[in-house]
Design brief:
Blueprint (H helix, E strand, L loop, with lengths): L4 E2 L14 E2 L5 E5 L8 E6 L2 E6 L3 H25 L4 H17 L5 H17 L5 H15 L6 H13 L4 H17 L7 H15 L5 H12 L10 H16 L1 H4 L8 H6 L44 E4 L22 H6 L6 E4 L3 H18 L5 H8 L6 H4 L2 H16 L3 H4 L12 H4 L12 H13 L3 H11 L1 H9 L3 H12 L6 H12 L2 H23 L4 E3 L6 H10 L7 E3 L10 H4 L7 E3 L7 H10 L5 E3 L7 H4 L10 E3 L7 H10 L5 E3 L7
Parallel strand pairs: 8-9, 9-10, 10-11, 11-12, 12-13
Antiparallel strand pairs: 1-2, 3-4, 4-5, 6-7
Main location: cytoplasm
Keywords: Cytoplasm, Leucine-rich repeat, Nucleus, Repeat
GO cellular component, one term: cytosol
Length: about 675
């Protein structure tokens, strides 16, 4: 019944009519019923006669009846509204059209979409309407928008209204439920970008009200809901998509002005003089489209061309610095491109950059960065927000803008303060070879505007949860040793601990660097104390190895961490190879004593409270462990994955643990010597 012409069955049982009947030709539609005759019939009155339609049942007949009436009326309204003369009559017809759609018994998306498309076409063809006429039309179609997304042309009309009359009551009373529905139910702004643009303009209109960001804040609260968990999973990704697109639009003028800029190679080599071209701002775009939140540009791919930005609105101040790392300064003959952070951080031609936005772009940026800050305040949203922002989905122009990085710092701090690993792990790069927020906000990074306080906070939280501690320390030693030593010199306890761990794990091979670290530690009270403790531990370890001791040891049941600590401190256990703590009350806290047993090969933790944190520590130190019993312990995938570094394991009991099938397959692939495995009463069984 959706076609413009209706092909009907003749009342004779001999096929179809020769000619179709046009909907516009139908003068009347009636239900027919009489005794001793077909019960389910429709009578169509057309010029020159009537047509009878017989249905198999009353439901089908009623569907035909309402469909024909609907199509006939829609055709009438299209004709009436296509040639408007008096707008008060047009408004009345629109209201009647909306009432018809709302009262129709038909259940189909087109019942509500067709009137919206008619009005959308009417508005696009009549651009000379007054503001009051605009608002009257919007109010008239408001009931249809409660359960339907506006079509693209209507979204464009709504955007224009938000821009021109942000303080109109229509924005609050009519647009608010429409935008709420979009944020709750939209699945992909890429397929309907005008919905995203309408949402963006609506939020900017809220920001223009007298209360400004307070109104926006209340709107975000209404989208989250009053409980601690937002019941609508699409709200956060949709809000983030709108924020990213809005922030991108603030720098779009700069992104599109790249005709007269120096190449990255010229900037890197210092060959470009500030006066040769104007302006000089070497930047590479992270994402070609703001709607692709998780898409990343592969900066090292030789097939991609370097993209450089230039704009008359960008002002660059040239300032020579001596803090750039020599390793990051390439020779003139090297054709390779610098990476994201190096380009902005150590470029000899421009180490200080200032981007000036226009007033409107500046307000837009402030509004949407504030929204990102609001989103980061919700505990249930923070894990997903961190994951969405981990690839750094912002243009390079934004990362070079001091105001943007300074405001966004609050969001990064919230990630760094969150104890959940799924949140603060997103501070690291999304994959090897890419730069992450950790690099941007570390000393020397383009976004760092403090003396390393945020960097120290990030290092502290990452060290507490990263089971690959040695790998992380090695990365710090290679890339951030200078900032670590500087902060340790200023008495930062986290950095003092980092330097001590580097010495303890033999991360630093160069003797001169080791001596410099020791001098740094001895320059402060806290550093001197922690370095002395490190020396004491190493002396005790060497003494244990020299004295030897028993090769097997079993602790009595119900023993505690304190009991184990007293026992191990009472004698020499340098030769201890087999330790059973089964059915004791030890926890992960005892791991710091177990790692002092250099000869340990077999460890039984059956039915203890030893957990993930302890496993991570063991995996870093007891690399020679061959037999490990974790039966009936509270360990999970998070800790069991750390065992993949213990290549000597040949027997592993994970009976009655929270082992998953995926983790089990991963362990089998990474532990080549594993021959005996017990996974009964687990998901992998």
């Amino acid at each position: 019944m959706k076609h413009e012409k209706l092909r009907t069955e003749n009342i004779q049982p001999t096929g179809y009519m020769e000619n179709s009947v046009s909907y516009s030709a139908i003068e009347d539609v009636q239900l027919l019923s009489w005794e001793n005759a077909p019960k389910y019939c429709l009578q169509l009155t057309i010029p020159g006669g009537t047509v009878l339609l017989q249905a198999a049942n009353s439901y089908l007949r009623d569907q035909w009846f309402h469909s024909l009436q609907w199509k006939k009326k829609i055709y009438k309204y299209k004709k009436v509204l296509s040639n408007p003369s008096r707008w008060e009559v047009v408004l009345k017809e629109i209201r009647t059209l909306v009432d018809m759609a709302l009262t129709s018994p038909l259940q189909d998306d087109s019942i509500n979409q067709a009137p919206l498309e008619i009005v959308s076409k009417l508005l696009s063809e009549n651009t000379n309407l007054t503001t009051q006429e605009h608002e009257n039309i919007i109010v008239a179609i408001a009931p249809l928008l409660e359960n339907n997304h506006p079509p693209p042309d209507l979204c464009e009309f709504f955007c224009k209204h938000c821009r021109e009359r942000p303080r109109s009551m229509v924005v609050i009373e009519v647009f608010t439920p429409v935008v709420q529905r979009i944020l709750k139910h939209n699945m992909d702004f890429g397929k309907c970008p005008r919905l995203r643009l309408f949402t963006q303009e609506y939020i900017l209109a809220l920001n223009e009200l007298n209360a400004g960001m307070e109104v926006v804040k209340k709107f975000i609260q209404s989208m989250h809901g009053p409980t601690g968990h937002c019941p609508h999973p699409r709200v956060l990704p949709n809000l983030v998509a709108v924020c990213l697109a809005a922030i991108y639009s603030c720098y779009e003028e700069f992104i599109n002005s790249r005709d007269n800029s120096p190449s990255l190679k010229e900037i890197r080599n210092g060959c470009q003089q500030p006066c040769d071209r104007k302006p000089t701002l070497p930047l590479r775009l992270l994402h070609p489209s703001p709607d692709l939140v998780s898409q990343e540009a592969t900066l090292s791919d030789a097939r991609l061309k370097s993209v450089v930005v230039a704009s008359s609105e960008i002002h660059v101040e040239v300032e020579r610095t001596s803090t750039a790392k020599p390793a990051l300064t390439a020779s003139t003959g090297n054709d390779s491109e610098p990476n994201l952070i190096d380009c902005l951080m150590v470029s000899p031609a421009c180490s200080t950059m200032s981007i000036e936005l226009g007033p409107q772009a500046d307000r837009t940026l402030g509004c949407y960065v504030e929204i990102l800050k609001l989103l980061s305040d919700y505990d249930d949203w923070r894990p997903s927000l961190a994951s969405l922002l981990q690839p750094i989905p912002f243009p390079k122009e934004a990362l070079a803008h001091e105001k943007f990085t300074k405001e966004l710092k609050y969001v990064i701090q919230r990630f760094a303060e969150d104890p959940r690993q799924e949140v603060h792990s997103c501070l690291l790069s999304v994959r090897a070879g890419k730069d992450g927020w950790f690099q941007l906000y570390s000393p020397g990074g383009v976004a760092c505007d403090d003396d390393g306080e945020l960097f120290a906070s990030m290092v502290h939280i990452l060290m507490g949860s990263c089971y690959k501690t040695k790998k992380f320390l090695l990365s710090l030693a290679e890339n951030k040793l200078g900032p670590c030593m500087l902060l340790a010199l200023r008495g930062n306890q986290t950095m003092v601990e980092i330097l001590c761990l580097m010495l303890e794990y033999n991360i630093i091979d160069n003797n001169d660097t080791q001596l410099q670290i020791i001098s740094t530690l001895e320059s402060t009270d806290v550093g001197r104390r922690m370095y002395e403790q490190l020396c004491d531990r190493q002396r005790e370890l060497k003494e244990l190895q020299r004295k030897g001791g028993p090769t097997r040891l079993t602790l009595p049941s119900k023993s505690t961490d304190a009991d184990l600590a007293r026992l191990l401190s009472s004698g020499s256990f340098g030769n201890l190879e087999n330790l059973s703590l089964a059915f004791t009350n030890v926890t992960s806290a005892c791991a710091e004593h177990l790692i002092k047993l250099p000869s340990l090969k077999q460890l039984n933790l059956w039915s203890t409270q030893f957990g993930d944190a302890g496993l991570r520590l063991l995996s870093e130190h007891l690399t020679m462990l061959q037999v490990l019993n974790l039966c009936e312990t509270p360990v999970t995938d998070a800790g069991l994955l750390a065992l993949s570094s213990m290549k000597s394991l040949c027997s592993l009991n994970m009976n009655s643990t929270k082992l998953s099938a995926d983790t089990y397959e991963d362990l089998k692939a990474k532990l080549p010597n594993l021959k005996e495995v017990d996974v009964r009463y687990t998901e992998a069984w």
